[in-house]
Specification:
The chain has two helices and five strands, in the order H-E-H-E-E-E-E. By secondary structure, it is an alpha+beta fold. The protein has one domain. It starts with 6 loop residues before the first helix and ends in a 17-residue tail after the last strand. 13% of the residues are buried.
Length: 115
């Protein structure tokens, strides 16, 4: 799924970022996740975001979530594993599912994990 933004929309993403977001690229990785499914809100989505103290940070934006994680400990991060969001309006619950492929020592692809 792709999200296409105009120059003005992208400018508002940058201007609406939390203070210091993106300011220390030598130490942190930064990501923005756009919520595409209506009526999913950032408040509902944030209920499903898992962070690891001292490594991850998550912030709400206007229709998006801002994530940062400490690069030195990125392997321990709980935030970004190619997020896919599913939403159930019946119970007003968002579940962020983390799907990733981990490399195994035998060279085969690892399995998918989800939260």
């Amino acid at each position: 799924m792709f999200v296409v933004l105009t120059h003005e929309q992208l400018k508002s993403v940058v201007e609406g970022a939390p203070p210091l977001f993106g300011k220390d690229a030598a130490r942190y990785r930064y990501d923005v996740v756009f919520l595409k499914e209506e009526p999913l809100t950032t408040k509902v989505a944030m209920k499903s975001v898992a962070v690891k103290d001292g490594i991850d940070r998550a912030y709400e934006g206007e229709g998006m979530l801002y994530f940062s994680r400490l690069m030195a400990k990125a392997a321990q991060s709980r935030l970004m594993k190619n997020i896919r969001t599913s939403y159930s309006p019946e119970n007003d619950h968002a579940k962020l599912q983390y799907h990733y492929k981990a490399a195994r020592s035998d060279g085969q692809e690892g399995g998918d994990g989800q939260k």
